[in-house]
Amino acid sequence: MALQGIRITRRAQNAIEMLTTYGWAILVIAIALAALFALGVLNPQNIVGTTCVINQAFQCSNVHLSSSGLLFFTLLQDQYQSVNITGIGCSENSSNEHVLAPNALPSTRSYMPGGNETNFTAQCYAASGTFSGSIGSILNATLYINYTYANSQFPYSVTGKVLARVDR
Question: Which of 7-21, 74-88, 121-135 is the least confident region?
Fold first, then answer.
Protein backbone atom coordinates (compact mmCIF):
# COMPACT_ATOMS: atom_id res chain seq x y z
CA MET A 1 0.00 0.00 0.00
CA ALA A 2 2.83 2.38 0.80
CA LEU A 3 4.40 1.71 -2.62
CA GLN A 4 1.17 2.64 -4.39
CA GLY A 5 0.97 5.89 -2.41
CA ILE A 6 4.51 6.78 -3.52
CA ARG A 7 3.55 6.14 -7.19
CA ILE A 8 0.51 8.43 -6.89
CA THR A 9 2.63 11.10 -5.22
CA ARG A 10 5.26 10.88 -7.98
CA ARG A 11 2.59 11.08 -10.70
CA ALA A 12 1.07 14.11 -9.04
CA GLN A 13 4.49 15.70 -8.65
CA ASN A 14 5.30 15.01 -12.34
CA ALA A 15 1.97 16.48 -13.41
CA ILE A 16 2.51 19.64 -11.34
CA GLU A 17 6.07 20.03 -12.70
CA MET A 18 4.78 19.63 -16.26
CA LEU A 19 1.98 22.16 -15.73
CA THR A 20 4.40 24.62 -14.12
CA THR A 21 6.95 24.28 -16.95
CA TYR A 22 4.34 24.64 -19.72
CA GLY A 23 2.60 27.41 -17.79
CA TRP A 24 5.80 29.46 -17.70
CA ALA A 25 6.39 28.80 -21.41
CA ILE A 26 2.86 29.92 -22.31
CA LEU A 27 3.21 33.00 -20.10
CA VAL A 28 6.49 34.01 -21.79
CA ILE A 29 4.98 33.52 -25.26
CA ALA A 30 1.89 35.57 -24.28
CA ILE A 31 4.08 38.42 -22.98
CA ALA A 32 6.16 38.36 -26.19
CA LEU A 33 3.03 38.50 -28.38
CA ALA A 34 1.56 41.33 -26.28
CA ALA A 35 4.81 43.29 -26.65
CA LEU A 36 4.79 42.78 -30.44
CA PHE A 37 1.19 44.01 -30.66
CA ALA A 38 1.96 46.99 -28.41
CA LEU A 39 4.93 47.97 -30.57
CA GLY A 40 2.78 47.72 -33.70
CA VAL A 41 4.77 44.91 -35.29
CA LEU A 42 1.73 42.62 -35.48
CA ASN A 43 -0.84 45.37 -36.02
CA PRO A 44 -2.84 44.56 -39.21
CA GLN A 45 -3.03 48.30 -39.99
CA ASN A 46 0.76 48.33 -40.44
CA ILE A 47 0.72 45.36 -42.79
CA VAL A 48 -1.63 46.92 -45.37
CA GLY A 49 0.21 47.90 -48.53
CA THR A 50 -0.77 50.33 -51.25
CA THR A 51 -2.76 48.81 -54.08
CA CYS A 52 -4.38 50.25 -57.18
CA VAL A 53 -6.25 48.00 -59.59
CA ILE A 54 -8.26 49.24 -62.57
CA ASN A 55 -10.69 46.95 -64.38
CA GLN A 56 -9.56 47.57 -67.95
CA ALA A 57 -7.76 49.87 -70.37
CA PHE A 58 -5.44 51.37 -67.74
CA GLN A 59 -2.99 50.42 -65.03
CA CYS A 60 -1.98 52.58 -62.09
CA SER A 61 1.22 52.64 -60.06
CA ASN A 62 3.33 54.90 -57.83
CA VAL A 63 0.34 55.61 -55.61
CA HIS A 64 0.82 58.11 -52.77
CA LEU A 65 -1.85 59.60 -50.51
CA SER A 66 -1.49 62.89 -48.66
CA SER A 67 -3.12 63.69 -45.33
CA SER A 68 -5.40 66.18 -47.14
CA GLY A 69 -6.81 63.40 -49.31
CA LEU A 70 -4.88 64.08 -52.52
CA LEU A 71 -4.13 60.84 -54.34
CA PHE A 72 -1.03 61.01 -56.54
CA PHE A 73 -0.65 58.18 -59.06
CA THR A 74 0.84 57.25 -62.40
CA LEU A 75 -1.63 56.05 -65.01
CA LEU A 76 -0.50 53.75 -67.83
CA GLN A 77 -2.76 53.87 -70.85
CA ASP A 78 -2.91 50.20 -71.89
CA GLN A 79 -4.54 50.59 -75.31
CA TYR A 80 -3.16 51.12 -78.78
CA GLN A 81 -5.34 54.18 -79.46
CA SER A 82 -4.74 57.60 -77.94
CA VAL A 83 -7.24 58.78 -75.34
CA ASN A 84 -8.28 62.03 -73.70
CA ILE A 85 -8.89 61.78 -69.96
CA THR A 86 -12.06 63.79 -69.33
CA GLY A 87 -12.55 63.12 -65.63
CA ILE A 88 -10.93 61.57 -62.57
CA GLY A 89 -12.52 60.92 -59.21
CA CYS A 90 -11.80 59.09 -55.98
CA SER A 91 -14.45 58.25 -53.41
CA GLU A 92 -14.92 55.89 -50.47
CA ASN A 93 -18.66 56.01 -51.25
CA SER A 94 -19.98 54.12 -54.23
CA SER A 95 -20.69 57.41 -55.98
CA ASN A 96 -18.95 59.11 -58.86
CA GLU A 97 -20.33 62.57 -58.10
CA HIS A 98 -16.82 63.89 -57.39
CA VAL A 99 -15.36 63.14 -60.83
CA LEU A 100 -13.53 66.27 -61.99
CA ALA A 101 -11.95 67.21 -65.28
CA PRO A 102 -8.16 66.84 -65.15
CA ASN A 103 -7.65 70.57 -65.72
CA ALA A 104 -9.52 71.18 -62.45
CA LEU A 105 -6.88 69.09 -60.68
CA PRO A 106 -3.14 69.64 -60.30
CA SER A 107 -2.42 67.25 -63.14
CA THR A 108 0.09 67.29 -65.99
CA ARG A 109 -2.14 66.71 -69.01
CA SER A 110 -5.20 64.83 -70.19
CA TYR A 111 -4.06 63.55 -73.62
CA MET A 112 -2.46 60.10 -73.47
CA PRO A 113 -1.00 58.36 -76.52
CA GLY A 114 -1.26 54.56 -76.53
CA GLY A 115 1.15 52.88 -74.11
CA ASN A 116 2.18 56.12 -72.35
CA GLU A 117 2.28 56.91 -68.65
CA THR A 118 1.05 60.16 -67.14
CA ASN A 119 1.00 61.40 -63.55
CA PHE A 120 -2.36 62.45 -62.17
CA THR A 121 -3.73 63.78 -58.92
CA ALA A 122 -7.25 63.19 -57.62
CA GLN A 123 -8.98 64.54 -54.54
CA CYS A 124 -10.45 61.64 -52.56
CA TYR A 125 -13.73 61.90 -50.69
CA ALA A 126 -15.05 60.07 -47.64
CA ALA A 127 -18.65 59.71 -46.50
CA SER A 128 -18.51 63.02 -44.62
CA GLY A 129 -16.76 65.08 -47.32
CA THR A 130 -13.14 65.48 -48.33
CA PHE A 131 -10.97 62.64 -47.06
CA SER A 132 -8.37 63.62 -44.51
CA GLY A 133 -6.31 61.56 -42.17
CA SER A 134 -3.10 61.44 -40.21
CA ILE A 135 -0.04 59.57 -41.44
CA GLY A 136 -0.84 55.87 -41.37
CA SER A 137 -4.60 56.31 -41.98
CA ILE A 138 -6.00 54.02 -44.64
CA LEU A 139 -8.16 54.92 -47.64
CA ASN A 140 -10.25 52.21 -49.31
CA ALA A 141 -11.85 53.93 -52.29
CA THR A 142 -13.08 53.58 -55.84
CA LEU A 143 -11.11 55.36 -58.56
CA TYR A 144 -13.22 56.68 -61.45
CA ILE A 145 -11.68 57.51 -64.83
CA ASN A 146 -13.72 59.02 -67.66
CA TYR A 147 -12.16 59.21 -71.11
CA THR A 148 -12.77 59.44 -74.84
CA TYR A 149 -10.75 58.07 -77.71
CA ALA A 150 -8.81 60.84 -79.47
CA ASN A 151 -10.47 60.09 -82.81
CA SER A 152 -14.04 60.05 -81.43
CA GLN A 153 -15.92 61.81 -78.71
CA PHE A 154 -17.87 58.81 -77.41
CA PRO A 155 -17.47 58.75 -73.61
CA TYR A 156 -16.11 55.74 -71.75
CA SER A 157 -15.70 55.15 -68.06
CA VAL A 158 -13.67 52.67 -66.01
CA THR A 159 -13.43 52.10 -62.30
CA GLY A 160 -10.74 50.70 -60.09
CA LYS A 161 -10.02 50.10 -56.43
CA VAL A 162 -7.44 51.98 -54.41
CA LEU A 163 -6.16 50.89 -51.02
CA ALA A 164 -3.64 53.43 -49.81
CA ARG A 165 -2.06 54.59 -46.58
CA VAL A 166 -1.46 58.29 -45.89
CA ASP A 167 2.28 58.77 -46.34
CA ARG A 168 2.63 62.55 -46.76
Answer: 7-21
